[in-house]
Design a protein that fits this description.
Two copies of one chain form a homodimer.
Chain A: H1 13-27, H2 39-46, H3 50-63, E1 66-69, E2 73-76, H4 89-104, H5 109-119
Antiparallel strand pairs in A: 1-2
Chain A binds a DNA duplex (30 and 30 nucleotides) through helix 3.
Chain lengths: ~120, ~120
DNA sequence: CCTTTTGTATTATTTATTATAATACAAAAA
DNA sequence: TTTTTGTATTATAATAAATAATACAAAAGG
């Protein structure tokens, strides 16, 4: 599994792993129902501790992106079981902050929306 | 100065202060060129340590939102001096992650753009 | 049966971050 | 001269992040 990590980033590694997997599912590089690599193999691949990957998987499980099972490993949920976006108040607040920064940073509403449109990849 | 802080949040207090000020400027609640409260008064207002507010001001200064001066205090920059948004790669990556989560979470591209449009308040 | 594999729990340790506290400083303004 | 400004300093405490080594329960494969 390809995974771009930035060890200089202020974003913790386990969160970066979580984010990369979410983007992978969103882009279609990881399929719904697909079995993720085991924590041990992924940890070896990217050169981090087993528990760091486990922490990422646990978070993905808690957020409803995957189901982890001691016996079956980690499996991506079905499309219709993914966590709802519109009802997530945290995401709304993130968008408001980003939009504020955009407005201050010289982006008109339409320019901002163009960037948002570009960020959303149709599957 | 009104400031909503969540001490249960995983976002550090100094970052929340920074974010609230950026949103305040973006919403027009804080004017360009306006003098911000002193670190001591804001710290007393919201009940945190002086250095916590100082850290927020220092970050805002480094990012180009305000100018701090030992003698003149903290002053919001002019509109045309605000940090550029479109060229900020970090913001692009944030948008891509959000868009991925939106796509997985049942938001069509248009629904996602509606949320983005709603988040951007015209001044 | 036995071995392997699974995610995770546990314990210990190290490092970095966050926040508080009390003090101090340089320099402009009053 | 005194006050006010942001910030530097030093110390301390609490929390978070990452590593390390080990262990466990339970299913799967042989």
């Amino acid at each position: 599994m390809i995974m771009e990590l930035d060890y200089q980033s202020e974003v913790p590694v386990y969160l970066q792993i979580r984010n990369e997997i979410v983007k992978g599912i969103g882009r279609g590089q990881i399929d719904f129902g697909e079995q993720l690599p085991t924590v041990r193999s992924l940890a070896a691949d990217i050169g981090v501790n087993t528990m760091t990957v486990s922490k990422a998987y646990k978070l993905l499980d808690q957020q409803g992106y995957i189901v982890t099972d001691r016996r079956r490993g980690a499996v991506v949920c079905a499309k219709n079981q993914m966590p709802d976006f519109a009802s997530n108040e945290g995401h709304r607040k993130e968008l408001i902050l980003l939009a504020s920064e955009a407005a201050l940073g010289g982006c008109s509403r339409e320019e901002f929306l163009d960037m948002c449109r570009e960020a959303y990849v149709e599957t």
